[in-house]
Amino acid sequence: xxxxxxxxxxxxxxxxxxxxxxxxxxxxxxxxxxxxxxxxxxxxxxxxxxxxxxxxxxxxxxxxxxxxxxxxxxxxxxxxxxxxxxxxxxxxxxxxxxxxxxxxxxxxxxxxxxxxxxxxxxxxxxxxxxxxxxxxx
Length: 137
Ligand code: 5GP
Ligand code: ZN
Description:
By secondary structure, this protein is α+β, with helices and mostly antiparallel strands.
């Protein structure tokens, strides 16, 4: 993809603080980190969203995420980390080349989880049924 920033980054057309590279994946530090050590993992191949990734690539992708997350955890000496995957503009995806955020968390860092709400009667049953039906299609 000619105008994709992460495709350019994958082939070193633009610089990045790369921390991992193999044949198919790279990991590099986010240019505007949520916290120190905030790392992004991407496949070198361009896939716009989770729906378009072949299952075997998705599987390998998560293996690399696990490997890099362990290293980030060890190197930063944090108490935990969040994984973040923004899928679609409405979900906050700004770069349309899939990437997993690994965001180190430190006690008292003040970062807030996303807000939650109470359920309205009947809505769980209804959406659970729709999801189950979609899974059998
Ligand atoms: P999204 O909102 O799409 O999930 O997140 C995209 C992330 O990519 C953001 O956290 C942003 O800071 C990061 N980013 C955007 N452009 C660049 C870049 O050129 N280099 C690096 N290292 N990170 C980038
Ligand atoms: Zn791309």
